[in-house]
Amino acid sequence: MNMDELIVEQIKKQAVPLNSTDDLEVLIEAIGDKKYVLLGEATHGTSEFYKLRMELSRKLIETKGFSFIAVEGDWPSCYEVNRYVKQYKDAKSSTRAVMEGFNRWPTWMWANEEVGELMDWLKKHNEDKPIEQRVGFYGLDVYSLWESLEEIERYLKKKGTPEQLALARKAFECFNSYDKEGQNYGVSAAFYGESCKDDVVKLLKELHVKRVRYDEDSEAALSAELNALVAVNAEDYYSTMVKHDAESWNVRDRHMVEALRRLALHHGSDAKVIVWEHNTHIGDARATDMMTDGMINVGQLVREAYGESDVCAIGFGTYRGTVIAAKSWGAPMATMQVPAAQQGSWEELMHRAGAYDQILLLNKEDPLLGHEVLGHRAIGVVYRPTSERGNYVPSVMARRYDAFVHVDESHALRPLTIEKVLV
């Protein structure tokens, strides 16, 4: 047998068919008492990935008491979801109204029917629980610079001191001259020394001190602090991006891990955390060619910070199907075909082992899957099916993930509004 055939035979022996959500129990058992569960996705536009992550999250919340879900989304818009599912008295009135806050491209990542179902479930789950036991929903990403500054100013008008409000307005005015374009700010900061960094760092320090000393209305104070953290790290991200793509990636993933740390700290020493992000973020970078490019990611940093024994990273992939994506950044979203995976790729070997949905538990000490480098498909919000070759990340699968969920034929997400175009 050649290497591909040996891997296929091993998958056949170890994989468990995924016929219904009851079959997810094998993952619940494998997670055990771990506090950090990282749930991936090979695309940002596949319905099955969202549905399966929802079912896994529901089981973890109901049976193991997980505290919150943190996602690859903006803090301000995701915090509106948090307020809605926790039923704060001035929260938005409906799931639809909340999801209209996801109005920055790519809107379909969170403004879709699958996430709406998760929100409805979380709201119902939280109904009869005291506020401190309600399960939250938060965004970890770094892109919402101007939205975060607006939220900070809004908060400080109600709760802050004149000195704090002055700090916020100074930072806002500094960034506002760049017409809400991160690239414009990045060029000015990187090449002309026109930086707003000192202003946002002072603001973050001030808000952190206030939250530590005065813990009334702690979620609102936490939100202001996390918005300030976004502003600090977004400044770093945009000023780095124009010179170093790899380092700007690292800034972004370090930010997400720091936001996660602050959220876990806020929820107490027994907090259990579920993270929803792309495979490229939650699968350990050290098991891919990212490492040779000097890149780190959330999966690596969380394992290093909390220990591999307390972290479970689960990758998700598909052999073929349809997906919501766009042909270029900012272009209209469309339903696109995902062609059959390339010969010898991880997805093709999973399909060859069985043309059905499967769950595979992984062990980094495995002599095959813990050492063999295989191409593993990754599709972003921008996708060109005719240029598929560049979408495969060389990966040692059992070192990248603790488990893998294979959807043999997947289907596009259901965005709230979309012209159903098949490309």
TrEMBL record:
Residues of the signal peptide: none
Organism the protein comes from: Paenibacillus allorhizoplanae
Listed name of the protein: Erythromycin esterase family protein
CDD domains xrefs: Ere-like
Alphabetized Gene3D superfamilies for the sequence: Biosynthetic Protein domain, EreA-like (biosynthetic domain), EreA-like, domain 2
InterPro entries documented for this protein: Emycin_Estase, Hydrolase/PRTase-associated, UCP036794_erythomycin
Organism placement in taxonomy: Bacteria, Bacillati, Bacillota, Bacilli, Bacillales
Pfam family name, one: Erythro_esteras
